[in-house]
Structure formats: C-alpha cells, structure tokens
Amino acid sequence: MHKLLIHISEKLYEFVLQFYPKRYRREFEGEMKYVFSETLKDAYAHHGEPGLFSVWVRTTFDTIESLFIQHIEEQRGGVDMNTKITKSIVRVAAVTGAILLIPIIGMQVSSEWNWNLFDFIVMGALVFGTGSLIELARHKVKSEHRRSVIIAIIVLACLYVWAELAVGIFTNLGS
Amino acid sequence: MNNSLSQSEFYILLSLAIQSRHGYEIMKQVEQDSGRKVLLGPGTLYGSIKRMLESHLIEEVAGDNPRRKYYTLTEKGRKSFSAELNRYNEAVELAKRKDLFRELGIAKLTF
To answer: Quick one: pLDDT at residue A28?
Structure first.
C-alpha cells in the first residue's frame, strides 16, 4: 500500500513540476524529483503514513512559494527575489492560493459548495489583505506584546468580515 | 561581505563547507545542523542553489554518483561564508564582553 502511495505522490509531484519555468526545470527537475522521492521514503520509514502526509503539507507550501518566486525571477530576467518584502508578498500569496484551493477541491466533491468567481475574488482579497497586514505588523511592530495584540485584532477583524459576508451579522450583506 | 545570505543559504553554505554534496545530502545536513529548525523543501533548496550558482558562491562538481549533481563552495563562497562566521563570532565575543548572555538570561550560552 505504501509503495502505491509513494508512487502516486511522485507522479503528482512530477506533474506539479511542469508548472515551473522551462529553464529552471531543465536545470533542476530531475534533482527535485529525486529529493522529493527520498524525502517521502525517509518520512515513511520513520513515521509511516502520517510522515507522508506531513511531507505533502510542507511540500505544498514550499512548491507554491517557490513557483511564484521562480516565475517572477524569470519575468525579471533572473533578478534575485531573495528580499524580505518580496518573500513576504510571495508567502502571503502562497497561503492565499493554498486557502483558495480548499473551496476549489470542495466544489469537486460536494454540490453543497457552490462558489462563483466573485466569491473567489472576495475571499482572495480578504485573505491576501489580512496576510499582508499581518506581515506588515510582524516587520514593523517591535514590541512582541503589541505585535501579538495587533495580529489578534487583524485576525478577528478578518473573521468578522468573513462572517458578515457569509451570513450577515449586523448587516444584510450576507448571502 | 555578503549581507543578503538568507538563513537557508547560510545553512547550505555551512553544509558544503566541509565536503561537496548533492541536493538531498545538503537537505539532510541542514536539517541536522539546524536541529530541525530549518526544513528545506525541494523548491526552497533548489531556488537557493540556483541563486548561489548565479552569485558564484557555489559550483557544480563531479561526485560519487554520476546521476546526481554535486555542489561545492567556490573561493568566493568560502570567503563569503568565513566573513559571515566572523561576524557572528565578533557578535558573540562582544556579547560575552558585555555579559549580555547572563543579562538576558541565556544560561545555555554562558561561557
């Protein structure tokens, strides 16, 4: 069973690698496949199936972030994207993308989940905006206590807006 | 010398300071050296390798397994890494002189 899981994972990762820029792929595709495959085998040997799951969670975020970086670097002709601001933006975009994957997958498996383009745009903007504010607070607010309070307020505000848009609490904006 | 070394890049250079390695070996060494605080995925690993190849901090060399790509530090990479280590060393020395480890309650690092 685990061999099949590893094989499917390898094939899936191989498919995802197609989304990297051609030049980058030519140089590193084989090596990345090898590293992923060895990581899977190692994780399974030490932790069993939960180990495979944990590799997939890490690799999903790693891949989304690195896909963004490599495509932007490719567009800019190899300009180094390794700056704090760029990495923050890419991280927020990666998390936004990963969160938006949930409804996309949900719509495939359940007819109860029915989002239109507007829903995705609103949710994307909400998550990206919240993430950007959190990153801003992380970098600009020096005091740890104040930073935690500000981040908590941002998260609560995001949850409130989300709930308001979804079901309407004090307004009738909810669907 | 090189102020833009990220945490991953620092650990990758550290892993290559003693011997040339291929990607998976680098990843495992970084994991071990950082006490599992830095876990590199293939994307971050090869993104960093690409940047360091372009900045001539590392270069590709032949290794034991002809199917793998091995990397080693260049002269520039060695100097850059030494400069980074020196900076850390100077910071630690300064902190020791000012008794900051005791002051900040970092008992583990008290010499």
So the answer is: 96
Q: Which B residues, 74 through 93, put their C-beta within 8 Å of a C-beta on chain A?
A: none
- C-alpha distances in angstroms, B26 versus A30, A107, B74, B85? 16, 40, 16, 19
- Is 0.90 topped by the overall pTM? no
Q: How far apart are CA B5 and CA B20, in angstroms?
A: 19
* CB B60 within 8 Å of CB B69: yes
Interface test with B, best of A31, A38, A80, A84 (most B CBs within 10 A): A31
Predicted pLDDT of residue B27: 96
CATH number of B7-109: 1.10.10.10
Which distant-in-sequence residues (6+ apart) come within 8 Å of B25 by Cβ? B15
Mean pLDDT (whole number) for A40-57:
91
Q: Is the ipTM of this complex over 0.95?
A: no
- Mean pLDDT calculated for residue range A87-102: 84
CB proximity list for A36: less than 8 A, separation 6 or greater = A9, A10, A13, A55, A59, B42
Query: Average pLDDT over chain A, rounded to whole?
Result: 85
CB A28 within 8 A of CB A67: no
Residue A24 has φ and ψ, to the nearest 5°, of: -65, -40
Q: What is the pLDDT of residues A108-121, one digit of tens each?
A: 888 888 888 888 88
Please state the domain extents for chain B: 7-109
Q: Is A129 left (phi over 0), alpha (psi -120 to 50) or beta?
A: alpha
- How far apart, in whole angstroms, are the C-alpha atoms of residue A129 and residue A132? 5
DSSP class of residue B108? G
**A-chain residues within 8 Å CB-CB of B23?**
31-32, 34-35
